[in-house]
Every structure is written in C-alpha cells, then in structure tokens.
Amino acid sequence: MAGRERHRLLLENAQQLVLVCGRGEPYLRRDGAASLSVLRGASLVVGLDGCIKAVGQANVIRNQFSEATFERIIDCSGKCVLPGLVDAHTHPVWAGDRVHEFAMKLAGASYMEIHQAGGGIHFTVEHTQKATEEELFSTFKHRLERMLRAGSTLVECKSGYGLNLETELKMLRVIERAKQSMDIGISSTGKTATEATDDIINNHLPKLKELKLSGEIHVNNIDVFCEKGVFDLESTRRILQAGKDIGLQINFHGDELHPMKSAELGAELGARAISHLEEVSDEGIRAMARAKCAAVLLPTTAYMLRLKQPQARKMLEEGVIVALGSDFNPNAYCFSMPMVMHLACVNMKMSMNEALAAATINAAYALGKSDTHGSLEVGKQGDLLVINASRWKHLIYQFGGHDTLINYVIVKGKVVYQNERCETMSSY
C-alpha cells in the first residue's frame, strides 16, 4: 500500500502502456529493439518529484494507491501511453529563411553546390551573426514549442552557425536560456564549423571550459563536421580529443557525403554517438558496434537531399545501437519525430518497434541520458505521451497525423500540452 501520500499524476487504465524497456536496459539492439515491453490495461504514477513511482496493471495500481491523492488523474481508457520522444540531432538556433533553396534542390543542385555558391550555411551564418540574442531566442522558443507538440520531450540542440567565437557563445547563451525557462528537456552541443582547427583548440574550447566552470553555460557534447572541404580526419581527431579533455561527450557528424572513416575514428576515441553515416564503411559499422557508439540516423536529410539511405538494417544486424533524429535545420525543416520514425520504417526498412526504440531509449543513450529518459520505468523522469488511439503504432502509421493523435504531452508528470481536438475528433 502507498498510504495517504500525495502524487503528481495518475494515468489510469491505458489500452497499451509502452514501457520500451522493462529491466533497466541503457539501450536496445538486435532482438531487444525488435520486441518492446508493452502492458495492456495498465496505469502509471508520477510523484511530486517528477519521477515515475509505479507502473503496472490497472487493478494492481488501484489497490496499491487506493488511499493516495493525486494532483491530476487522466483516464486513458482506449488510449495509449508512450515515453516522450527524444530527438537526438537538431540545429534549431539560427536566423534567415532558406525556402528559396528548396527550388534549387528540386532543380538538381547538390548540398555542396549550393554551399560553394555562397548559399547554404553561408546564408544562415550571415543572418545568425546579425541577429540579436533576443531575436534568436524568440524563433528558437517557437521551434521548441512545435517540437514539444509533436511529442519530443528531450531534444539535442547544436550551435554551429556562428563561425566566430562571439556568435557561437551567443547561440549557446540562447540554448542555456531555453534550458532554464522551458519545459522541454535540452541536451546542448557545441558544434565547430569551418574555423581553423588551432583557433578552436586554443581559443574556443578554453573559453567554453571557463564558462562551464563558472556555471554560465552548460554544454554536454562536442561536434565536428568531418567532411571533404570542411574538417579532414586529422583535424576532426584533434578537435574531438580536445573537447573530450574538457569533459565533453563526443557526438559528431561523420561519413555523410563521402566515406571519411569517421565511424572508425569515433569508435577509437570513445564517441558516444556519430550522426548521418550515409557513406559509412562495413568496418566502421563493426567498430561502432564493438565500441557501443550509437548511430544517429537522419531519414529526413537523406529524403530531402536525395542522398543514399543509411544502412539501418545492416547496422541493426551487426549490433549497432541505432538512434534517430530529425536533423531540424534550414536545410531539413522537420519538427516531427513521428514523421521521422515513419520515414525510417519506409525508406530505411526499420520495423515500427525498432523505430520507436531508436526515438526513445537509444536516442536518450546517444545523449548520455538513458538513465533518466527514454523508457517508462520506476525512477525515471515522468516524460510521457498519451495518444488518442487503441494501438500505439498509429503514431508511426499515420504519416503527418500526430496533430490529432497526440492528446497529452507530459514532462515531469505535468501536462505541458493538451490537444483539445482529440476530445472532439476521431483519430482514425
């Protein structure tokens, strides 16, 4: 019996309650990712500290908490409860509208051709450098709110469009401000762009370390774009090692447009995750599996840039920890992890179970947060979705349908988004 304790939230009698993990696994791969832990006719309790206190069959929870009181009770009959989604790769802090480039892409221009013509990142950098901190925060805040409404409760956010120390720090301050003022969880990443390697190592990273120690900015990860014409393998190694030396997790872009042996390098350096990997080698895949280095796959990017799809099936079969991200940026404008999961299933041949694992526990692992996020287990943070469907797979199956499927988004046991349309509209 739980006695007369007061709790924050009771989600009662869900048709399906998707735990994802049931035994404290930090990630799922191979068979684990293919078969998720799901309860039927189940309830869940979140305490006043925002953490999950109990998960189980509805009648067992009802008896256990018969004398407890709750700040809020939600009847989930006929609905499904899932972990909040985790977006493991975004670039959401920038200024400038690049919709004009979409026509260029449709006409056949490649990413690097647009880049070399002064478009792409150059256009974004110019506008981001000119924007005030307040302007950047305002647009960033609205983007995060849209991600939250689409079910993401933890988002990795990169800087990187500054190209100079002043603008990079401005972007990181914007991310820090959002961390302190918004409900959505944020894992921040300092992304180096095309400055000289020595300048990054000798000036940028020491300043970042100073601001971390003072508590002014909290950065979790170090990122480099390892690519021809950007950072070569040796420069990437030097920057990532310098970031690791000041306590940052390695989480970087690799093997996207050309085979660079980024996966092999990441495995050697103990990287937590590598993103993109459209051009990864077979040996790189095996090295990542051995090193338990997560592959953050970005189906929106391959789709929008008409790139070769990442080898998700081969990675899964080799035992790589596969995660997903939206890669939200001016070049891949997608806020929706449900749509990302759908694309992963259709274009990368992942199963729906594998896609959900990749967008929850494995994405959390890629950010070093799977001990607190990514599954519905006792002791973890109470970040959840309630969807208006009797089977959870509708969240992936209904391409673009999350706006009428997601009934509640909950962070630390508090409802941060309630979709009134779910009470008046059928989701089928």
UniProtKB/TrEMBL annotation:
Family named by the database record: Belongs to the metallo-dependent hydrolases superfamily. HutI family.
Protein name, as recorded: Probable imidazolonepropionase
CDD domains found in the cross-reference section: Imidazolone-5PH
Any Pfam family the entry gives: Amidohydro_1
Pathway(s) it belongs to: Amino-acid degradation; L-histidine degradation into L-glutamate; N-formimidoyl-L-glutamate from L-histidine: step 3/3
EC id: 3.5.2.7
NCBIfam families for this protein: hutI
Domain of life: Eukaryota
InterPro entries in the cross-refs: Amidohydro-rel, HutI, Metal-dep_hydrolase_composite, Metal_Hydrolase
Cofactor(s) named in the record: Fe(3+)
EC class name: hydrolase
Domain Amidohydrolase-related: 81-416
Gene name linked to the record: AMDHD1
PANTHER family assigned: IMIDAZOLONEPROPIONASE (PTHR42752), IMIDAZOLONEPROPIONASE-RELATED (PTHR42752:SF1)
Reactions catalysed according to its record: 4-imidazolone-5-propanoate + H2O = N-formimidoyl-L-glutamate
Keyword vocabulary terms for this entry: Histidine metabolism, Hydrolase, Iron, Metal-binding, Zinc
